[in-house]
Amino acid sequence: MSTQSNRRILNPGGTNDSFQAEQYTKGSLDLDQLLADPVVQFNTWFQHAQAEKVYQPETVTLSTAELPSGRVSARMVYLKEVDERGFVVYSNWATSRKSKDVASNPQAALTFWWHELERQVRVEGPCERMSSEESQLYYDTRIRGSRLGAWASQQSQVLRDRAELEGQVMEVEKRFAGQENIPVPEFWGGLRVKPEMVEFWQGRPSRLHDRFRYTRGSDGSWKVDRLSP
User: Fold this and answer.
1) Residues 6+ positions from 106 with CB-CB distance below 8 Å
2) Tally of CB atoms within 10 A around 154
3) Residues 128 and 191: beta-carbon distance below 8 Å
4) DSSP code string of 98-109
5) Can you tell me the distance from the alpha carbon of 60 to that of 75, in angstroms, rounded to the nearest whole number?
6) Looking at the domain that runs over 31-226, which CATH code has it been given?
7) Distance CA 24, CA 125 (A)
8) Is 122 among the catalytic positions?
9) Taking the CB of residue 199, how many other CB atoms lie within 10 A of it?
10) Pyridoxine 5'-phosphate oxidase dimerisation C-terminal domain: which residues (predicted)?
11) CB-based contacts of 87: which residues, under 8 Å, 6+ apart?
12) What band does 7 get if pLDDT is binned at 50, 70 and 90?
């Protein structure tokens, strides 16, 4: 005798007032539209996203995994720099979950989702921590409160309550009172993901999306393949 399942099929959050998922119809992607270098291609797409008023296109999911357990963790961060060396985000590297993951496993992944354009970009590769000198350049562009916050927050550590955090901030404010040039904390800085794989994804109807994957060869050159959706 069969047992009634408690399984629930969720209604898609589309705009067509039906039980079917929303269709992607805003574009297509073909090989002849892609540039030879994926970082240059990313910059082209990113500039287009800015021009089309995509909401915070620099928002990206950073995924890391701890070894030997293999436990994966992911969080939303802001992309702050990109060049031929890779994609850069900033964080606390003493106490954060991502710092512990990277210490045991230097591989990371980034995922951008630009809903307004129905586009996705995925990046995978090893990561490296940037020098204090490199990190200071970005750190100096942050508002004072954010610079002090980097000193105060023991990221991902347990707090008794909000008052404990605010007390830590007050201590840092006293330490740097009247000081505008604040040094970057030795435990805080940039993480560069050096791309070995970059995928560009354009939504298409019926889930038959266009996907192109760049993979870096041993000689540094890039190979491009179309992937099945």
Assistant:
1) 126, 127, 128
2) 15
3) yes
4) HHHHHHH--EEE
5) 8
6) 2.30.110.10
7) 29
8) no
9) 18
10) 188-229
11) 60, 79, 81, 110, 123, 192, 193, 195
12) confident
pLDDT bin (cut points 50, 70, 90) of residue 14 is low
Q: Can you tell me the distance from the alpha carbon of 144 to that of 189, in angstroms, rounded to the nearest whole number?
A: 16
Query: What are 109's strand-pairing partners?
Result: 63, 124
Tell me how far apart the alpha carbons of residues 34 and 200 are, in angstroms, rounded to a whole number: 9
pTM confidence score: 0.89
3-class state of residue 33 by DSSP? helix
Residues 140-152 pLDDT 10s: 999 999 999 999 9
Alpha carbon 170 to its chain centroid, in Å, reads 30
d(CA 225, CA 213): 5
The DSSP-derived string for 131-191 is PHHHHHHHHTTS-HHHHHHHHH--TT---S-HHHHHHHHHHHHHHTTT---PPPPTTEEEE
The half-sphere exposure of 93 on its side-chain side, counting CA atoms within 13 A, is: 22
16, 107 Cβ separation under 8 angstroms = no
What's 49's DSSP letter?
H
Return the domain boundaries, the chain.
Answer: 31-226
Which tokens belong to 103? 């210490």
Q: Could you tell me if 186 and 120 are in contact, meaning their C-beta atoms sit under 8 angstroms apart?
A: no
